[in-house]
Every structure is written in structure tokens, then in C-alpha cells.
Amino acid sequence: MSSSWCLAAAASPADLVAARTQMGFSLGWHIVIACFGVGMPAITVLAEWRAIRTGDGVHELLAHRWAKAMGVLFAVGAVSGTILSFEMGVLWPGLMETYGQVIGLPFTLEGFAFFIEAIFVGIYLYSWDRLSPRAHLLTGLPVCVAGVASAFFVVTANAWMNQPRGFDLDNGTLIQVSPWAAMFNPATPPQTVHMVLAAFMVTGFGMAAVYAVGLLRGRRDRYHRVGFLLPFTVAAVVTPVQIGVGDWAAKFLATNQPVKLAAIEGVRQTGTHVPLHLGGVYQDGELRYALEIPSGLSILAHWDPAALIHGLAEVPPDQRPPVNVVHWAFQVMVVIGFGLLLLGLWLLLAWWRRHREPPRSRLFWYACVLAGIAAPVAVEAGWITTEVGRQPWIVWGHLRTADAVTPVPNLSVGLAVVVVVYAVLTAATVYVLRRLARAPQEADARPEPVRP
Amino acid sequence: MTAAELLISVMWLGLTAYVLLAGADFGGGCWDLLAGGTRRGAAQRALIEESIGPVWEANHVWLIFVIVLCWTGFPGAFAAVASTMYIPLTLAALGIIARGAAFAFRKATTELVFRRAYGAAFALSSVLTPFFLGTVAGGIASGRVPPGIASGGIVRSWLNPTSLLGGALAVALAAYLAAVYLCQDARRAGSTALAEAFRRRALATAVVTGVLAACGIAILHADAPVLFHGLTGRGLPVVVVSALAGLASLVLLLLRHYLATRVTAAIAVAALLWGWAVAQYPLVLLPDLTIEAAAATPEVLRVTLVVTAVGAVLLVPSLVWLFALFQRPRSAAGERAAQHPGGR
Ligand code: HDD
Ligand code: HEM
Ligand code: HEM
């Protein structure tokens, strides 16, 4: 067994890049689908509940069709999540060998959430004709709860990577672990709340976009109106809250992970009255071509123009994340956040001025289609901010990404295969969802409306 | 029993559930592959789809559960297996993606070309995934995954006689379990012809599996002496239980007692897994990593066990309900709705 294939001493830089790309790629893929796993059950159950309460056929039809799409998305979410749990070990054995047990608790809890979710998804999707309408509605509730719970649990694990707590090391070996302290680390509250809200935004804007396309094509019937308004309202209500939570996340970084905030804002030197930068490129230790708002960052981070902001110069160069990626990812997220806020306000204004009618302008509907794409882009940008902003650490301050990666050679081959498989998977998922969206409405109508 | 032993037993229970439940789902995919042309195989495929549809996702979660318990309770062993077994685990993960997605897509698609393509992907990955997982088991059992990160041969750890045996056995067992379970499903659906078809398959795979297992003894003797001695020594009673249950299933199948066959077939397969565990006890990884040495810190073990116990209180009734709901015929109201294709 001593061929050249075994016992590679350490990963080459190219292999490290391949592993990071593969992890980021498969996570970035999973997260979009997972958002629907968190938000779609709630929105579907909402429609079903209204159908039962009012006996309204349109709501019932929507609930049926959304449930079908949910079935497809769940399957894809489950399998794309499974590959992640493999990758945690296959790509990052150095992380799991030492810290697997520290983050094991949230993942164990997540396992139970998955069970509940998968069981009740099976029941919900396949028992329209086996249970009474009320009982069927109730089987949707555990799916909603478990979806939010699994997002919560997995993000606590990521929060721990940002704020590692709950363990004692002695010469690199763990001597003591407090799993609950690790799970409820300081980064847990802002990160989990921000993520769960993001999931509802992605789902709401994403579902609404489908009907916005229909409305643009002139299908102005009640089915398309309700199909648009219900998910859009959910997402639009969440958006302002999300911006507040994002601000909380940034304030959290200012005190707990200042290096990341410095990368986000391209701040090199520690100082007071630090301005806020919009746009710009970080070159030779300064942010160029940016729009400056005097003292903006100090105010935003601490509500005080004289507040101290730590700069990148406080840590050695090999402990600084790549600034431009983080800075731009953050800008994209924030711009999208405010854009979506404006979109929601536009609808609100029209609703009030036009007496319960949505805006007539085609521009509004085009913007709604765009919002369906922009929301997941914001999520990706947010995660790039978080994950790249943590570099070079995989466990902040404790373990470097380069020391956690597997020494197995030729990781780029694995990356290439994974990318190809995901490309096919993406194409097939989009195709199937489009088929479901385009199927004639009669195909899903029940023979008679269900009454309570 | 120590906390570490308790946790590894829970993990092994999870693995048993995965093999018995998801294994059969994979087996269903194998039979889908062998069901014949589009028209000829339609009835069989419909039965398979109907049986797997509501349950496969829940069955699949057992694997995640096992993986997570492994890295929580035995992080070093997990890192060793995952890094050395980089190739088969990546392939198995891709197979899992292809299978789950293709199955869901096929259900949601109407055009024949696409249904065929998804069907083919579903069926092929149903064979390949258990095969690769089986090679991993074979590599661990024959001591080719030493402790430490990527310290085993990343090719030879899973391309060797015991691994190939493990892979073949995994596929055969999956097909066998599926055929046995489907006999009863077909009977409940009122189709004697389908029940007969799956009965023939169950009998054939029972024989194939038996022969494989018998050849396996010789392979293990030559290739995995430690496991061989464990199986013929301390593990012998469990192996005998497996063999007896296998024989009983054969007889019950001949007599067409399908429900009873389900039980004995499951016992036969489960006993094989537990025979391996008993044979290898107290080692997690050969040559010398014991359960105690591989285990996480005591607090982690304690919390994990408590959480698992509490979780089981939620999980078990839900699971029972899931299986019970789809084992009983639709309600009268359901029948009515089901006659309209848009019923769900
Ligand atoms: C629809 C999605 C969405 C929207 C509109 C926003 N975010 Fe966000 N943001 C996320 C989705 C997201 C995310 C993908 O969910 C992240 C990644 C990790 C996390 O916890 O949330 C994230 C991370 C994240 C972080 C890094 C947290 C950390 O690393 O600990 C900060 C500082 C912000 N966000 C701040 C904001 C601000 C100030 C916003 C105001 C417009 C904003 N986000 C809008
Ligand atoms: C689903 C949303 C997530 C996305 C889109 C995401 C994105 C990324 C990206 C882009 C990278 C590569 C960063 C780099 O190397 O420069 C990365 C790395 C990584 N992420 Fe995340 N991440 C997500 C959530 C999580 C969670 C919840 C965990 C763990 C519990 C996690 C664990 C990791 C690990 C282990 C790495 C590899 C090491 C590293 O590069 O730091 N990620 N992720
Ligand atoms: C922020 C990041 C993440 C969120 C919000 C999230 C959320 C979810 C949700 C809601 C599901 C249920 C299936 C679905 O809805 O489609 C799911 C599935 C899954 N996720 Fe993620 N996930 C994240 C990242 C991860 C990571 C990092 C891992 C593993 C290391 C992971 C592992 C899994 C697994 C194994 C499944 C399949 C469970 C099943 O079979 O039902 N997820 N995820």
C-alpha cells in the first residue's frame, strides 16, 4: 500500500483552491434550494389554510401546484445537502478530525429536523387523498417548523466557525468540549436570524417572479394575481426587517470580528471618524475610486462618529482576507437589499393610491421578475462576505483553511466532475420546474372545491 | 456498556435502518433497470415508484444521521475514512444526487424521452451507489483504512477483493430486500402477476446472495484474516442467525408468506451487519484503534446520547405513522379523488 498515491504530506496550493472552490460551489448551489425548503412550506400552507377557510378554488389550486414544485425542490435539496455532509469529511478532514465533535451537536439536531421534515414532506405530498383537509393542513406544520429549525442548526455550526467557543485545547488536542456553548456562540443570533429571513425573501420573491412573468404575458386572471401577491407580500414584509438584521450583523462584526468588517469596508488603518465607502477598488492598501460618506462607518457600526474602527493593518498580511471580493460581495448584497425594499414600497404605494390594485407599469413587473433572481444573488453575496471574509481561517483564529484540507492529490478532477454533475442537475431542475409552472391549470384542479 | 459503546451501537442501529430501508429503495431502482422495455416494464415501474415515493427521503436521512453521529462521536475515525475513501465516497455522493433528483424529476415529467433519460439515471445510480458504499465497508472491514488523515491507499483501499465483495454484496442485498418487500406491496395492490414476478426475483437474488456470501468466506479468508477470524469466532452465532433467517425466507417465499418473509429477510441482512460489528469489536479501525480511543470527549458523548434519546421520542411515532399511512389503502374519499388524475 505504499504506492505514490498514498500519504501525500500536504495539499498543493492548486488542490487547496480546488477544494475551496468545490465546497463554495456546492454550498452556494445548495443554499438556493435550501431557502425554498425553509420558506416554501410556510407559504404553501398559508395558501392551503386560506383555501380551507374561504373555500376558494384559486388558493387551493395554488397550494396544489406549489406542493408539487416543493416535492421536486425537496428532493434536490436533500441530495445536494447530502453531498455537503460527505464533503465536510472528504475535503476537510483536518477540520473534522479535531473539531467534528465540537460542531456535532447542531448537526445531530439537524439530523432530527431533517427526519421530521422528510417524513412530513412525504405525508404532505402524498396524502391529499388520504387525510381530511384539516388533517392534511396540519401535516404541513411540522415541515415548516423543521425547515426553519434545520436552517437554524446548520448556521449555528457556521457561526461557530466565526466565533469558536466551547472547547479547550492542550497542544492541539481537545481536552474539553461544551457542545451547547459551542452551538450558542456570540455569532449565532445575528447569523441565524439573518439567514432564516433571507430564506423567506428568496422564496417569496422567487415564487412571485414566476407569476410576474405570467402577468407580463398578459395573463391578468385572479390565479396569477393571487399567485403573485401572496408570496410577494411575505417577502416584502420581511425585507425591512432583514435590513435591520443586516445592520445588527455588521455591528456584531465591528466588535467581534473586526478584521472581517475591515475587509468589508476596505479599512486599512485603525482610526476614528472612519468614512463609509460605496464602490471602489482596494489597491495598495487603500480603497480607490469610492464614494465617501464622512464618519459613515463609525456611525453605522457604533452610532458614534468618533467611534474606533479597527483596520486590516492590525493583523499580519497573511491573516487578511482578500479585500476586493469581500467588499464587492457586501456591496452587492446591500444594494439588492435596498432595491427590494423600494420594490415593496412601490407596491404598497400603488395599493393605497389605486384602491387595492397593484401598479400598472410594466417596469414594476419587470422589476419583480428581476427580484426573483436578485434575492438569491444577495444570499450568495452574503455568504461570500461571510466565508471569504473569514479567510485564511476555517475556524477563526484557530485553524487555517490550508491546514484543514485533505492531502489527497488531484482534487481538481473531483471539482470538474462535481461541476459537470451540478450543471446537468441545474438544467434538469430548471426544466422540470418550468414544465410544472406551465402545465395547464385544469390539470391540477380538484373535481369539487373542498369545504371546511 | 460505556457511553462510547452505546453511541456506536446507536450509530450501527442507524446504519441497519439505512440498509434495510434505503437499501430496499436502491434495490427498487435495480429492478427498475431490469424491468424491460418501456411498455413491458410499465406496471413494475409504477409499483416501484408507488412504493418508494413517499418514503425514500425519510429513509435517506438515516445515512446523514449515521455520518453525523460518526463525526460527532468518533471524529478521528471519521476523518480517516472520509479522507482515505475520497474516491468512492465522492462517487457515492454523486450517485445519491443522480438517484434522488432523477426519481423526483421522472415523477414530474410527462414526455417519454425525458422520462426514459431520468429513469435510466435513476436506475443506474441505484446500482452504483450501493456498490461504492459497499466497497467502503469492505475497505474498512479488511483493515485498509488505518487511523490518520489519508494514510490508506486512496485507490487500493477500495479496489481490492474484500471491497469488491462488499460492493457486490451490497447491490445483491439491496435487490433482494426490494424484491421481497415488493411482493407484499404487489399483493396489497391486488396484482398477483406482479407479486409472482417479484417472488421469482426474490428467489433468484436470494440464491445469488447466498452464493456470493459463500464465496465471500473464501475471499475473506485470503484477504481479510482478522475479519474472517472474528466472523468464525465470536461473530459465529450472529452469522448463523443470518444464514438461518436467509433459509427461512427462502421457504416462506416458496410458500408465498410475503409478510413473514419481510421480517426474516430483514433479520438475515441485519444480522450480517451486526456479525461484522461483533467480529470487529472492540476495534473501530484496524489495526488497533479501539472504540474508547476513537471516542469524542465524555461531555460530547453524553450530550449526543441525550439529544438522540429525546429526538427519538419525536422521530419514532412520526416514522410509524408515515409507514402505516402508506401501507393502508386509500380512504373512500381518497378513492374518489384518486380517480381524477389531478387528485394530487
Ligand atoms: C436576501 C438576502 C439578504 C439581504 C437582502 C441582505 N443580506 Fe446580509 N447576508 C445574507 C443575506 C442577505 C446571508 C446570505 O444570509 C448572510 C450570509 C451569512 C449569514 O449569516 O447571512 C449575510 C451576511 C451578512 C453579513 C456578514 C455576517 C457575518 O459574517 O457574520 C453582514 C455584515 C450583512 N449580511 C449585512 C447586511 C446588510 C447591512 C444588509 C442591508 C441591506 C443585508 N445584509 C442584506
Ligand atoms: C449555504 C450557505 C453557504 C455558502 C453559500 C457558503 C459559501 C462558501 C464559500 C464561497 C466558501 C469558500 C470560501 C473560500 O475558501 O474563500 C466556503 C467555505 C467553507 N464553508 Fe461555507 N458557505 C455556506 C454555509 C456554510 C455552513 C453552514 C458551513 C458549516 C457548517 C460551511 C462550511 C464551510 C467550510 C468547511 C468551508 C471550507 C473552508 C473555507 O474555505 O473556509 N459553510 N463556503
Ligand atoms: C446556511 C446554510 C444551509 C441551510 C439554510 C440549509 C438548509 C437546509 C434545508 C432547509 C434542508 C431541507 C431540504 C430542503 O429544504 O431542500 C437541507 C437539506 C440538507 N442539508 Fe442543508 N442547509 C445549509 C447548509 C448545509 C450544510 C453546510 C450541510 C452539511 C454540511 C447541509 C446538509 C444538508 C443535508 C445532509 C440535507 C439533506 C437532508 C434530507 O435528506 O432531508 N446543509 N438544508
From TrEMBL, chain A:
One of its GO terms (biological process) is aerobic electron transport chain. It is found in: Cell membrane. Keywords: Cell membrane, Electron transport, Heme, Iron, Membrane, Metal-binding, Transmembrane, Transmembrane helix, Transport. GO terms for cellular component: cytochrome complex; plasma membrane. It comes from the Bacteria. One of its GO terms (molecular function) is oxidoreductase activity, acting on diphenols and related substances as donors, oxygen as acceptor. Belongs to the cytochrome ubiquinol oxidase subunit 1 family. The chain crosses the membrane at residues 29-49, 70-92, 104-126, 138-161, 193-214, 226-245, 328-351, 363-384, 413-433. It comes from Goodfellowiella coeruleoviolacea. The keyword Cell membrane applies. It is a multi-pass membrane protein. This is Cytochrome bd-I ubiquinol oxidase subunit 1 apoprotein. Its main location: membrane. The lineage of its organism: Bacteria, Bacillati, Actinomycetota, Actinomycetes, Pseudonocardiales.
TrEMBL record, chain B:
GO terms for cellular component: cytochrome complex; plasma membrane. One of its GO terms (molecular function) is oxidoreductase activity, acting on diphenols and related substances as donors, oxygen as acceptor. It holds the Pfam family Cyt_bd_oxida_II. The chain crosses the membrane at residues 6-34, 55-74, 86-105, 117-142, 162-182, 202-222, 234-255, 262-283, 303-326. It is found in: Cell membrane. One of its GO terms (biological process) is aerobic electron transport chain. The keyword Transmembrane applies. InterPro entries: Cyt-d_oxidase_su2. PANTHER family: CYTOCHROME BD2 SUBUNIT II (PTHR43141:SF4). This is Cytochrome bd-I ubiquinol oxidase subunit 2 apoprotein. The lineage of its organism: Bacteria, Bacillati, Actinomycetota, Actinomycetes, Pseudonocardiales.
